[in-house]
Amino acid sequence: MTGFTSISPQDDARGFRDALGQYGTGVCVITTRTSENQIVGMTANSFASVSLDPPLVLWSPAKSSRRFEAFSEAPHYAIHVLGTAHTHVAADFVREANAFSGLSFGVNAHGVPLLEDCIARFECDTDVIHDAGDHAIIVGRVTNVAMGAGAPLMFQGGRYGDFAAH
């Protein structure tokens, strides 16, 4: 193939990250309640389906995140799939764990914050956590699903955008 530059991911971490950034992903906000009764959230683009039976999903927080402990110890959490109108929500939860100010949300029976303005929401019980280098893979058993409407917010090449249908 022409036009490609070959890199060693071990020797060029930035190049490896840039190559991964070529893959467009959806954007989610994950929320939970800590053992100290604090509500926290974080933006993630590592969400994926795992199984329909049983209903399982996964996401992968970075171990270096200040919020990693809150989520790696959480028995329950919610994944909120963001729409194109939610760029500010994604950006706010990247910067601050408690970016709930000004957002409409309720809580479920476990006290997990449930954002009302999203295009899909998955309430989960932590099923298993796998070590994965500088990240963890958190597999959740989905206990409830809610769907809204709208086009998904996408992340590609370090930027937020939308999906352009052709």
Features:
3-stranded antiparallel beta sheet, 12 strands, single chain, mainly beta, about 170 residues, 3 helices, 7-stranded antiparallel beta sheet
Question: What do you see in this structure?
Answer:
The chain is 13% helix and 41% strand. The chain has 166 residues and is mostly beta strands. The strands form three sheets. Strands 3-2-6-9-10-5-4 form a seven-stranded antiparallel beta sheet. The longest helix is centred in the middle third of the chain and has 9 residues, at 87-95. The radius of gyration is 16 Å and the shape is globular. It starts with 12 loop residues before the first helix and ends with a strand.
Largest sheet: 7 strands, antiparallel
Order of strands, main sheet, comes to 3-2-6-9-10-5-4
Helix and strand run: HEEEEEHEHEEEEEE
Number of strands: 12
Morphology: globular
What is the count of helical runs? Answer: 3
Mean pLDDT: 90
Q: Note the beta-strand portion.
A: 35-45%
Q: Helix coverage percent of residues? A: 10-25%
Taking the alpha carbons of the first and last residues, their distance comes to: 25 Å
Low-confidence parts = none
Radius of gyration based on Cα positions? 16 Å
Structural class: mainly beta
